[in-house]
Amino acid sequence: MMQFFGETKIDFIKLRWKAITVSAIIILAGIVSMLIKGGPKYGVDFLGGTVIQIHFAQAPNIGEVRQVLSNAGYVDAEIKTFGTANDILLRVQEQEEGAAVSETIMKALRDAFPQNLPEERLVESVGPKVGKELRTAAIWATLISLVLILIYVSFRFEFIFAVGAVVALFHDVMVTLGFLSLLDMEVNLTVVAALLTIVGFSLNDTIVVMDRIRENRRLFRDANIEKIINLSVNQTLGRTIITSVTVFIVVLILLFFGGDVLYSFSFAMTVGVIAGVYSTVYIAAPLVVEWYKKAEIEKVRRGVKVA
After folding, report:
1. Quick one: which of 121, 138, 175, 191 has the fewest CB in 10 Å?
2. Are 20 and 122 members of one domain?
3. What pLDDT was estimated at residue 174?
4. Could you tell me if 13 and 286 are in contact, meaning their C-beta atoms sit under 8 angstroms apart?
C-alpha cells in the first residue's frame, strides 16, 4: 500500500467527541433550516413546473424581465442567469400545459423587448403528480440503498461495522442536505444522483478502513480497540488522501467551470467528498470503539477475562 506521508501515528480517536459535536451542530443547523423552510427546497423535478431557457441578443435587465412575468401572471417565477448574461433560466410552478406556459411567457417577453427579441432554447415540463412520484422514488432509492449496505457489510464484516458504515453514510447525506438548505439551493434529480454517488464513494473508503481493522485485530490480539483503529486509519491514510484529493479536484473543476446545469451536482459532491472522508474516521470508527468498550465492560461485569 502506498503511504502518502510515509508512516504516520496520528491519534484520530482522541478527537472523536469534538468531531461528533461539530457534526451534530452542522446536522442540527441543517434540520432547523429545513423545518423553518418547510423542508428541502425541491426543484422542478420534484414539485412540478416548467423550466425555460431563453437567449437574448443583449443582456436583459432582470428586474424588467421579472416585472413582465409578474404582469403575465407569473408572480412567483424564479429567474437566474444561465451561462452568460445574455441567457436566463425561468422556472414557474405548473399552472397549465408546459407548452402553453412557454408560449405565454415568450409572447409577453417578445412584446416587452421588441428591440432585444428573446429566443427560446429549451423547455422542460414536469407535472405535479410526476414530480411527487419522483420525490417518493428518490427517497426510497436512498433508504433501500442504506438497508442493502447494512445487510452486505453485516455479512462481510460484523454487524457493528455495518451499523457504523450506515450511520456514517446517513451522516454524509444529512450534512450535504443541510448545506443545501442553509444556502437555499434546490434539491433535484441531479442532487439525488450526487447523494447516491456520495454513498458509494464514502462506503468504499469505510470498507477499506474496516477491512484493515479486521486484519489488525487478528495480528494484535492484545491491543485495545482504540490503538487498533488508530493504526488502521494511519495505515490507510495514504490511499484515502490520494483517492479523495483526486475526486475532490474533479468536482471542484465541475463546480467552477461546469456551469449552472451541473452546479447543484458538483456542489453536493464537493460537500459529500469532504463529509465522506471525515465520517469514516470520526463517525464510523468511534461507533465501533464505543461498541467494543461497552462489550468489554459487560465481560468484566460477568467476570470474563478481557485481553
Report:
1. 121
2. no
3. 92
4. yes
